[in-house]
Amino acid sequence: MGLFNIGGEGQLIWGALAAAVAGRALDLPAPLLVPAALIAAAVAGAAWGFIPGVLKMYRGVHEVISTILLNWIAIHLVHGWLVAGPLAARGSGSSVSMAGTDPIRAAAWLPRPIPGSRLDLGLPVALACAAAVWFLLTRMWLGFEWRAVGAGAVAAQASGIATRLRVCQAMALSGALSGLAGGLLVLGTEHRYPGVFRTGYGFDGIAVALIGGATAPGVVAAGFVFGAVRAGATRLQLVGIHPSFAELIQGIAVLLVAAPRLFAPLLIRLRALSRAPGAPP
Amino acid sequence: MSAALSGVLEFAPPLVLAALGGVLSERAGVVNIGLEGMMRFGAFAAAVGAFFTGSPWLGLACGALAGAAAAAAHALLSLRYRADQVVSGIALNLVALGLVTFLLEATFGSSGVSPPVPALPRDASGRTALAWVAVALPILLHLVFARTPLGLRIRATGENPHAAATAGVRVLRLRAGCVLGSGLLAGLGGAALSVGILGQFDARMPAGQGFMALAAMVFGRWTPLGAAAAAFFFAAADAFQRQLSFSVHAADLRLQGIFLALPYALTLLLLTAGAGRIRAPAADGIPYDPEGRS
Question: Which of B82, B91, B253 sits opposite A255 (nearest CB)?
Answer without folding.
Answer: B91
